[in-house]
Amino acid sequence: MRVTGTADQVRGSLCLSDGTKLDGELFGEACDVAGEVVFQTGMVGYPESLTDPSYRKQILILTYPLIGNYGIPSDEDDEFGLRKWFESAQIHVAALVVADLSLHYSHWGATKSLSDWLKEYKVPALYGLDTRELTKKIRENGSMLGKIVREGIDPDSVPFYDPNELHLVGEVSSKAPVVYNSSGNVTICAIDCGIKNNQIRCLCERGAKVLVVPWDYPINSKDYDGLFISNGPGDPQMCDKTISNLRRILDEDENTYKPVFGICLGHQLMSLAIGAKTYKMKYGNRGHNQPCKYDHQRATRCFITTQNHGFAVDEATLAPGWSSLFTNANDKTNEGIVHNTKPFFSTQFHPEHMGGPRDLDILFTVFLDQVRNHTQKVAG
User: Fold this and answer.
1) Which pLDDT score, from 0 to 100, does residue 8 have?
2) CATH 3.20.20.70 assigned to 168-379
3) 352 in catalytic set
């Protein structure tokens, strides 16, 4: 049931760059903010989504109607020193928009409400809007700029801005190298473009030592057994230093190269490094229910995947020696690439599955098997 406002409830509006204005009730922090408006179709996982760095400075619409019913879990670390229930150390969205808000949460692991958690990070949110109408508008017209403005505030005093023109990766990337699971038997260098905690965890759980480095770190294949490139926010072409570093690594000969695995933005950066092109999608793919076909080497099978991206790789521009690995079954966009002879591959979707589904977390096993096999081959 929709929560109704009280006498002291602050109202607000979502204003879109095409002139659309939708009114609702504010929760979380009562403030004004602008960003890019996008929608996500997952039915669960709002704590994970809000802490995903790939949503940096976006106004996130959740299409599932009831949000907040299972609250927010405690902020505790796992055995590797990673936050157990969140994908990073903070909320990255600019704001949240939902249809119905549950003020009374019920879950064994919950310690606070969604609204109280948003207040801690000074993030505003709106409920009581028709998110179906809003999602249909974005599907028809594409992602657009927007702003949340409190009632009584002149909307013109809050300017629109496009976060894709900012170097968002530089904002979310770590500032210095950090090691996780120092006792691991192989070393994975993970380029942090906005890395999610569960990506590090998936590598550590499989026995790897993970060296997480900043987006522009001068990587050297002598320092690791395998290279991983993470997800992250914004336009991949902003990461010129990462692209240049990857081009050098991917061009190494058979005597020096090491296995490489990229996810989401990492997939796009690998593609740019080999000379392919990327483009901004109309409204992107964000949710836990995107079907992808594995179509490499004449094998065809469909998997359900988690996704969060607004840019895609133009498959027609792939360099010789590279092939498509996965294809989105809905819009036919590229979802991964693979080198025909070297252990290099990437996925546009998120196989680390935090929030679900777990169809393809086996890709971390595939990657680490490649790393261990390659290490043994070089050693012996």
Assistant:
1) 56
2) no
3) yes
